[in-house]
Amino acid sequence: METLKSIYEVTWFILLVAAGVAVLIGYLYSHFKFYSRSWFFPAALAAFPLLALAVFGGLLGGYTFKLWLYFLLAEAAIAAFFRSVVKGRHTVPYLMLAPAFVGLALLLVYPFIFEVYLSFHDLKLTTIMTWKNTGTLPFVGIDQYVKVFTTSPLSETTFWHLLLRTLVWTFSNVFFHVLGGFILALMLNNHIKFKGFYRTLLVIPWAMPQVVAVLAMRGEFHSTNGFVNIVINKLLAVFPFLAGLGVAPVQWLTDYPLLTCTLINIWLGIPFMMVVILGGLQSISSSYYDAADIDGASYFQKLRFITLPLVRPVMMPAVTLGTVWTFNNINVIYLVTGQAGGTEQADILVSALYKAAFTYNRYSYSAAFALVVFAMLFFFSVFYLKSFDAAKDER
Amino acid sequence: MATVQFKKIIKKFGDNLVLNGVDVDIKDHEFVVIVGPSGCGKTTLLRMLAGLEEITDGEIFIDNLLVNELHPSKREIAMVFQDYALYPHMTVEENMNFALRLRKMPKKEIAARVTEAANILQLNKFLKRMPKQLSGGQRQRVAIGRAIVRKPKVFLFDEPLSNLDAKLREEMRVEIAKLYQRLNATIIYVTHDQVEAMTLAGRIVIMNHGIVQQVGSPIEVYRKPCNLFVAGFIGSPTMNLLSGRLSIADGVSVFFNESLTLPIPAFVLPQKEARDGREVVLGIRPDDVLVEHPGGEKCSSKIEGVLEVCELLGHRENLYLKVGGQRLLATVEAFFNRSPGSAVSLCLNYQNMHIFDKVTERRISE
């Protein structure tokens, strides 16, 4: 009976979403047809929110007026976009894209706008009930942003320290991802036997669910039962002189949490870079290497003067992506150190942000925090891609 | 400048025999064109000379130095690739001086050599450009310039004109011929285009199935093709090849098949007795099929044929004729004012007649 009920609920929800999408698409269609009529703009402004209210109004209970306002705004934005930007050109492509846009709007645009809203208000454990009962929050202006830079999301580490740690983490990870990926790709690009087998083996860490991979690796760094320490112990037993060099088993998870996370994340990230770089390597025509051979270039000169410059176009977007992913990588840090009683020594900006939001319940603060992180990554990406484009134009 | 010798060169890719005992001697300052259909192993031979392909067996000498184990850069050769292989991220100038920079040559010397090559090839305006900003012909010139600046002993050209359109190809062909006159270098040039081979070469090496078919000057291989393959490959339009049999009637050698009976004079086929009863292929170039010709001593007697199709090329005209069941192509001066289907008389020029043994495919006529 319980299962039947949940199936019924899910079906109902799916139908509801489908109906919503259908209405939106039909509405867009009418846009495309009547976009140039003088009566269209006001009529659409009035009619569609009413329709939306009729459909969703009952469902959402007390929020009807606000909801109507939001619909009105969205409506105005969409209608203005179609009147001034689309202007009736390429109507069919937009129509085809509409379902995807609706999905994106629900999943990305709405949360983003809500986050901006939150960051200028004060939602925390003490105000959340007021919000629930009245639907209003105290407006605090840029207070939350000031707090981001002046107070700390954690108990031990300051924001600036976290930022520095994040930069070190990102740089070291991406550096070793690219280095390792490049070396493996170069090796795989040769004519070797069982190439497909090696490639599959090397891609496995990437193909595995990250949670599984990280938890498995975390086990390997366990102080007594982990693979790493066992190997170190065996090595010490075989080569006693290593002890004189300072090699000894280490409490990885408690003494060097960030290093452990870095090692695990490097292992996880290399396959992606390897695949991308291998693709780039394979697209380089072998006649360049023939020409370089005749010109008298050594292996490293070929690497420097031909392989690197020609792989750069595929590598740069991958490095940008990898940087953003690493900067925002909460999985590894949280899964290795973040559980109850975990250390703060390995926290980077996003994992601290997670703790601020869901351990300390400082929602508005963490919204502002998230926007600051977003701004950093946004400017980094824009700058990076711009400089890459400039380099490409030179060619 | 240098001589090049191939001695019993064999190349295998796995079990696939690509080159089977190639023996060619190339003299100093010679322009040798290696020509053959695709897959005949000509590019492989060139790449082996450049050191880009391993030699399965045999020896290659450059300037009497065995280079089998020598690194490409030490062989003092320069190669122009089919796809130019210009480094896309370097300017024209950087492309041209790359090899010199790698050798750590003094900058003055590099600049002088690049300027000199650019002058020869009229590339001065383009030195700062990127390869992708150049047209196909200009890229080709840069690729040649990259070879020139190195002052190599031997220039290797691997189908350098095949990526260009027909008109540009003609222009570049002349450019290369001029360049050869100017550099007076040893040049080995690979192509599948027999027109390029005929126009550029001092000597032609014709290859098929990994075997050298004939080596000779363009006029030699055109006038005296040594086997059926060369006869069919060299010359445009292609030579007419008629299958038939030889016999002796009234002391004269006669070629016959179901559509045609043709006496063969002794100056064409000297040892007529030895050839009696042989299956042969008679080759005659379209130019030597004389249509509506008064005839003469060096010509066969009149043969009656039917005109099937005319193709006007401008100054010449291709006539597709049928003699009995035998098709023949003749080229004549334009304009041959006959409608298709009309009867024409023709005779074959004995002076340029070739007879090949059908079994061995070797030339048996003079």
Radius of gyration of chain A from CA coordinates: 27 Å
Shape of chain A: globular
Indicate how many domains the architecture of chain B comprises: 2
- What order do the SSEs of chain B take from the amino end to the carboxyl end, as H and E? EEEHEEEHHHEHEHEEHHEEEEEEEEEE
Describe it for me?
The complex is a heterodimer of chains A (395) and B (366). Chain A is mainly alpha-helical and 395 residues long. In chain A, 78% of the residues lie in helices and 0% in strands. Chain A has helices spanning 2-34, 40-60, 64-86, 91-119, 128-134, 143-150, 159-188, 195-207, 210-220, 227-238, 241-244, 252-255, 257-282, 286-295, 299-327, 331-338, 349-358, 363-394. By secondary structure, chain B is of the alpha+beta class. Chain B has helices at 42-50, 92-102, 107-121, 136-148, 166-183, 194-200, 218-223, 228-233, and strands at residues 4-13, 16-26, 31-35, 57-62, 65-66, 77-80, 154-158, 186-191, 203-208, 211-216, 240-249, 252-256, 261-264, 279-284, 289-291, 303-312, 316-323, 326-333, 343-348, 353-357. In chain B, helix 2 (92-102) packs across helix 3 and helix 3 crosses helix 4 (136-148). Chain A binds chain B through residues 285, 287-288, 290-297, 301, 305-306, 309-310, 394-395, and chain B through 47, 50-52, 71-74, 77-79, 81-83, 85, 87-89, 98-99, 102-103, 130, 132, 146, 150.
